[in-house]
Design goal:
Helix content is about 55%, strand content about 20%. It is an alpha/beta fold and about 675 residues long. The radius of gyration is 62 Å and the shape is elongated. It binds ligand C2E and magnesium ion (MG) (2 copies). The site of one magnesium ion has 4 residues, from loops.
């Protein structure tokens, strides 16, 4: 903001004041001298004129007094009064008796004191009247008094003119000089001030001071260019200072050898990552990585080789773990630390740990030797293991030390139970990848019964895994694992193939059953899923109406429009769609209207306590009514008792499946069951 300073402080005004003062004082002095000289001249004039006048009338006056001619004397006196400054005139006899005398009042003047002081009130002249050639005989006297005011008034008006013109000259000169000064100095100076104010103190050389137009070559231009040179020098010095500061910062923040974050700056970053995880309600893993037996490299190959090894490992860590989810730092010595944020569960951290181990394990050439290093990792999780950065790091470091005691080339989680669970699951994951190839998977079929006709109309294909050591692994346990590592895509396709193969066999045997196959969300989001399913049906020569796909509510919520489009295509091809475990998810009418759904499967948790728990009964009733109003067939899942079956039949539920009819069965058992069940229905009807 332009600082407004008082008018009297502006340079222009100060100059104006000085010029006025000097011009006035000098003008007044000069004019005073002029006026004084003029006064002296006026004063002399008064005397001279009086003397001339007296000289002119002296003879006539002498004649008058000599011949005692009063009329001549009066004429002389009257003649004198033609001048307006004569105040008194007398022609006197020697005895001082007047022959003729006349007076006139003095002229009044406001300046009388001044006039009296300079010129006197009046000028008096008295001369003896003598005849030519005989000055010894005096016939009388001639007296005349002059009033000084008329001459003084003339002098005063001249003095006024002189003074006024001096003041006017001073003012005009002052104004002109002020304007010139403003144009030449004040205005360009103000422009420079404005320009200086726009200089950024952070980057002084970014925008230099502009030279006012027309002043490039004068003192102002010189001043601006000197200022700019100074600004550039300051800017360069600031830049050097910043660079030095950056260098010092970098040295403090980064490890010199590897270029990774140092321990201190890592701790700051960890705090930020923890705050972010807290906001996003996500897990975070701190993985401390200790190189196994690093000391022997130093001992055998020297420190330079050791440094090279650490640099190589740092590079590998950075390349393996790229992306904003990861932070890699060197703790010192042969220890690194990795933070992974945005985790859904500990299993993701285990995947990262495996990737780190694989990265470290790749062979490298040190001093012409091929070396394959290993590492041991300790993992601590936020928020379950600790919530403060130092505690988390401490836990991970301790875990790494403990893990080293047990062996090398492996990872360990801080909490033993989690470590066990994750280890188990990792094993299971590995085993599952081989399960298909090793023929450990098979399908069982659970009959679906029409409650009105009491006939088996279809079967749900359910996957079983016979693990060589663990025995039968429940699908509720291994399906999520297959979903998380993506193997469900291959396994799901295998299930579909098997189910279609079986449907075809049963159809050929005169059992035209509809087969329901569970479709995982991961499968549904595959681009090729629609083609794969239709292709499989075609290959096995199965009418599309023979296949039902069971999807859960959660599986189409992630990308609703994509799921709707795919299910529409499948449905248009003739495949029916069932919503599995209905009532446990969102159960939203909006999507139910959008989805091409034909069947609602009431989840077995509501059927289990049907008639025992009021709320479950109410939910079951609601789903049945909803099905009726939306024209969807309702399937009750997990029917275990005759009471449940009776109630559901009465309430208008169309289909049911559950242990009350049969557990999921192998194909041969299934066929036997269907025959027996239908036999019984015929008997009951008869
Ligand atoms: P689901 O699709 O809801 O399957 C029904 C589950 O209820 C089956 O468990 C079945 O054995 C069980 N069940 C049937 N009747 C009764 C009953 O009367 N009482 C009780 N307590 N349970 C009964 P299962 O076979 O263990 O399958 C569990 C889940 O695994 C299935 O739930 C399904 O979500 C998934 N699953 C099974 N096979 C596959 C598959 O091939 N692909 C996919 N994606 N998921 C599958
Ligand atoms: Mg199902
Ligand atoms: Mg279900």
């Amino acid at each position: 903001m332009q600082k407004s300073f008082k008018v009297e402080n502006r340079l222009g005004y100060r100059i104006l004041r000085w010029i006025l003062a000097v011009a006035l004082v000098s003008g007044v002095i000069v004019s005073a001298i002029q006026v004084a000289l003029d006064a002296r001249r006026v004063s002399e004039n008064l005397d001279n004129q009086a003397k001339q006048t007296i000289a002119m009338v002296k003879d006539a006056a002498t004649q008058a007094v000599f011949s005692i001619d009063a009329s001549l004397a009066d004429q002389v006196i009257d003649g004198l009064f033609a001048r307006d400054d004569v105040h008194l005139a007398q022609i006197l006899h020697t005895n001082k008796e007047p022959l003729s005398s006349s007076t006139r009042p003095m002229v009044e003047s406001a300046f009388s004191p001044l006039i009296n002081f300079i010129f006197g009130k009046e000028r008096r002249f008295r001369t003896e009247l003598t005849r030519n050639g005989d000055s010894s005989t005096v016939y009388g006297y001639f007296v005349v008094h002059y009033d000084t005011v008329p001459a003084a008034h003339m002098w005063l008006s001249r003095a006024m003119v002189t003074l006024t013109s001096v003041v006017a000259t001073a003012v005009i000169l002052g104004m002109v000089l002020y304007f010139v000064f403003y144009m030449l100095l004040t205005r360009p100076l103000l422009r420079i001030v404005r320009s200086v104010k726009q200089v950024n103190p952070e980057l002084p050389d970014d925008r230099l001071v502009a030279t006012p137009a027309g002043h490039e070559n004068d003192e102002l231009g010189l001043w601006v260019s000197a200022t700019n040179t100074l600004l550039v020098a300051i800017g360069e010095s600031q830049k050097r200072h910043r660079e030095a500061e950056d260098r010092v910062n970098r040295l403090a923040r980064y490890d010199q050898l590897t270029g990774l974050l140092s321990r201190d700056s890592f701790m700051e970053r960890l705090q930020t990552d923890i705050d972010e995880s807290k906001r996003n309600n996500r897990m975070l893993a701190v993985i401390v990585c200790g190189i196994d037996d690093f000391k022997s490299i130093n001992d055998q190959c020297g420190f330079r080789a050791g440094d090279f090894t650490l640099q190589t490992i740092a590079d590998r860590l950075v390349n393996t773990l790229n992306g904003s989810r990861f932070t890699v730092a060197r703790l010192g010595g042969d220890q690194f630390v990795i933070v992974e944020k945005g985790l859904k569960d500990g299993f993701q951290a285990a995947d990262t740990a495996e990737a780190i181990l694989a990265g470290v394990n790749e062979t490298m050439v040190v001093e012409n030797l091929s070396v394959a290093l290993t590492a041991t990792l300790g993992i601590a999780l936020y928020p379950s293991d600790a919530i403060q950065p130092d505690r988390l790091l401490q836990s991970a470091e301790q875990t790494m030390m403990l893990a080293k005691q047990k062996g090398r080339d492996h990872f360990q989680f801080y909490v033993a139970s989690i470590d066990q669970e994750i280890r188990d699951r990792k094993h299971l994951e590995k085993d599952l990848l081989d399960a298909l190839a090793l023929n450990q998977l098979h399908l069982v079929y659970q009959p679906q019964v029409n409650l009105e006709t009491k006939r088996v109309i279809g079967a749900e294909a359910l996957l079983r895994w016979e693990h060589p050591v663990r025995g039968l692994v429940p699908p509720d346990y291994f399906i999520p694992v297959a979903e998380s590592n993506g193997s469900i895509v291959e396994i799901g396709q295998w299930v579909l193939e098997q189910a279609c193969l079986q449907a075809k066999r049963w159809a050929d045997k005169g059992l035209p059953l509809r087969i329901a196959v569970n479709l995982s969300a991961v499968q549904l989001h595959q681009d090729r899923i629609v083609d794969d399913i239709l292709d499989t049906l075609q290959r096995h020569d199965i009418p599309a109406g023979r296949l039902e796909l069971e999807v859960t509510e959660t599986s189409f919520m992630t990308n609703l429009s994509d799921a709707v489009a795919k299910l529409h295509t499948l449905n248009q091809a003739g495949i029916s769609i069932a919503v599995d475990d209905f009532g446990t998810g969102y159960s939203s009418l909006t999507y139910l209207k959008k989805m091409p759904v034909q069947h609602l499967k009431i989840d077995k948790q509501f059927i289990r306590d049907l008639l025992v728990n009021e709320e479950d009964t109410r939910i079951t009733n609601t789903i049945i009514d909803l099905g009726k109003s939306l024209n969807l067939t309702v399937v009750a899942e997990g029917v275990e008792t005759a009471e449940q079956e009776y109630y559901l039949t009465q309430r208008g539920c169309k289909l049911a499946q559950g242990y009350f009819f049969s557990k999921p069965l192998r194909t041969a058992d299934f066929e036997t069951f269907v025959q027996g069940f239908h036999q019984q229905t015929v008997e009951n009807n008869a």
